[in-house]
Amino acid sequence: MNTPALALRQVAYTNKAFWRNPASAFFTFAFPLMFLVIFTALLGRGQVVIGGRQISQATYYVAAMAAFSVITACYTNTAISVTFQRDAGVLKRIQGTPLPGGAYLSARMTHAMLIAVLLVIITTAFGKGFYSAEVPAGVTLLRSVVVLVVGSASFCALGLAITAVIPNADASPALVNASILPLLFLSGIFIPLGDDAPAWIRWIGRVFPVKHFADGMQAGFLGTAFHWSDVLVVAGWGLAGLLLAVRFFRWEPSR
């Protein structure tokens, strides 16, 4: 059996293992919706200026939580789960099977991307039903799909890359969250960044991929300007993450 076929079979196995852990699966899908309800209840009653447009904060948070769900599924969950499997010896045992390492990691990335797509669909439907959020359509929908695919693949690659600097599984939640939570705040995921946001915060947002990915998602939901440069920045970070993962990814726990 060739490598792509083995990877597809591994995707099916990974999906089965995911749904056989109902508690983990439930909170994977409930977490973004819970944040959406909390933020809209606390901060979603007013308007915010984004790209020169007055946007309902409730609608803003639908787009923000859609982006957050992708980052959680593809970056946070991938990095933590792969680190735990590495320390448990699962990755080392996989190297002793006919399944190529590349096929295994590709399957993990593919499954995370599928979960991310499902999360965006659920968040969008929830936002449409409860907050009358706009749903992308036509050309806007196609652009949103491109942003979603590029973003999910890139954050998966970055999730694999960061495992190289995580010494053990116990440290993985702290290090992974420390690397992403500040960017979520500084990129406008949790708190809308208006045009009067401090210059240093806007500068950080332009450097890292979270803000560019969030802007691409917002263009589909909020009707703000779409920039292909946002997609290129996210893709560039994803390529860098992939190269780092290829070079430094470890299949065995540290001694």
What do you see in this structure?
This protein is mainly alpha-helical. The chain has one domain (3-248). 75% of the residues lie in helices and 3% in strands. The protein has ten helices and two strands. β1 (47-50) and β2 form a beta hairpin. α1 packs across α5, α3 (57-87) packs antiparallel against α7 (172-186) and α9 (209-222) packs antiparallel against α10 (228-248). The longest helix is centred in the N-terminal third of the chain and has 31 residues, at 57-87. The mean pLDDT is 88.
Task: Present the secondary structure layout.
Blueprint: H1 3-19, H2 22-43, E1 47-50, E2 53-56, H3 57-87, H4 90-94, H5 101-131, H6 138-162, H7 172-186, H8 199-207, H9 209-222, H10 228-248
Antiparallel strand pairs: 1-2
Largest sheet: 2 strands, antiparallel
Strand segment count:
2
N-to-C terminal Cα separation, in Å?
Answer: 35 Å
- Shape from CA axes? globular
Residues in helix, %? over 70%
Helix/strand order: HHEEHHHHHHHH
In the sheet with the most strands, the strands line up as 1-2
Structural class: mainly alpha
In a few lines, what is going on in this structure?
By secondary structure, the chain is mainly alpha-helical.
Overview features:
mainly alpha; two-stranded antiparallel sheet; 255 residues
